[in-house]
Amino acid sequence: MQPDVFELFGRPVRWYGILMAASMLITLFWAVKLMKERKLDGDQLWEGTFLMIVAGIIGARLVYVVTSWGSDFAPLLTDGLQLRDLYDIVAFWNGGISIHGSLIFGGIAAWWFFRNRPVSFMQVTDSLAPGIALGVFLVRIGNFMNGDITGWKVEKVPWNDPSSWDFPSKIPWAMNFPYDEWHAQVGAYGDPSVIIWRHPTEIYGMIVGLVTFLVVWYLYRKKLYDGVCFYGWIITYSLTRSLIEEPFRAVHWHWPVAGGPDYGWQIFTMTQLVSIPLIVGSIILTIYTRNLFLRKREQYQKQGIPYPLYVAHERGIKLSKEQLAALGIPRKIKPPVEWEMGRAYELAKKRQAKAA
Predict the structure, then answer these.
(1) What's the domain count of the chain?
(2) Alpha helix (H) ranges present in the chain?
(3) Based on the domain organization, do 12 and 135 belong to the same domain?
(4) Fewest beta carbons within 10 Å, which of 39, 133, 247, 292?
(5) How far apart are CA 109 and CA 132, in angstroms?
(6) Residues 343 and 261 in one domain
């Protein structure tokens, strides 16, 4: 694995930075497209993009620096604070960010920006969620090229001898990452001839990203109310990362309860502990949002609004006379349609055709 792709103005351009930028662009363009498909003003997202990206990057790096201070940054200050030390602390493009920090700071910025906009905060985050999930997968490829998600050391055993396997301390898929922390500790950073087998936690992270994307995309296509996609992303990502990736990461901030360096795994890490309130809070908000949706649906039923429009909200679009007539809604009623008007219209026509 080679972190650098090429040099630009004497500075290395890394796979991590390229894939991070690509994931941001994919997320934004895709979210705008999804919003417009649901008859929402996707251009509103572009107006808030700069604020959300800057806040997300600051939060991602800040949380990483705080949680990795003792191991990665405090040693830099043994001779006092130097300009180079400040560069190393800020240089997120070299790897080292916290997705939880990005989520918190970027989420706060998005909430502040969209609090009085025609498009709601939850509509925006639901549209961003599929791209963010896919971005996790892409960024982990960058981590793989960097070798910067250090896994616990293990013993590599042959694939063709299952009797020698003893997960998680003896595994056939163990890998050597010349640019990881273990090589740096023995003065062999970047030297592929020095073999240190460890868990390929970057690949585990790719699996987390892929699973999260599949779940989030399913929820997005089946969406019935605002928030389910965004909360589903938080729950799925936090849960899968805590189970698939985190136990095998050699992180410095942890609360050792089980496992350890000799076993190839350990719990609990800081991420696992933070994931607990995130998962619980998201489940509570999902239940609350669903109950709110059901109460609104009951109100719309009393007005004679058909099933596809139960997802209506006050800040909807104005229906044409043809759509009102096709849905059997009296013209004096102004249904507050939220999203996916085209799909709702088609579903209503199908229901009427079956009834006929």
Answers:
(1) 2
(2) 15-37, 43-67, 83-90, 99-114, 121-146, 181-185, 201-221, 228-240, 270-302, 321-326, 341-355
(3) yes
(4) 292
(5) 16
(6) no
Give the C-alpha separation, 39 to 213, whole Å: 23
Torsion over CA: 140, 144, 149, 153 (sign): positive
Q: Which amino acid is at 27?
A: T
Give the length of the chain. Answer: 356
Distance CA 180, CA 146 (A): 7
What confidence tens digit (pLDDT) does each residue in 292-327 have? 877 776 766 666 555 445 444 333 444 555 655 555
Q: What is the pLDDT of residues 225-248, one digit of tens each?
A: 788 899 999 999 999 999 999 999
Closest CA to 126 of 236, 239, 47, 221: 221
- Using the 8-state DSSP alphabet, how is residue 153 labeled? B
pLDDT at 303: 60
Segment 73-103, tens digit of pLDDT = 545 555 555 555 566 677 766 656 777 788 8
Q: Which two tokens stand for residue 278?
A: 């995130």
Q: Domain containing 351: what range?
A: 309-355
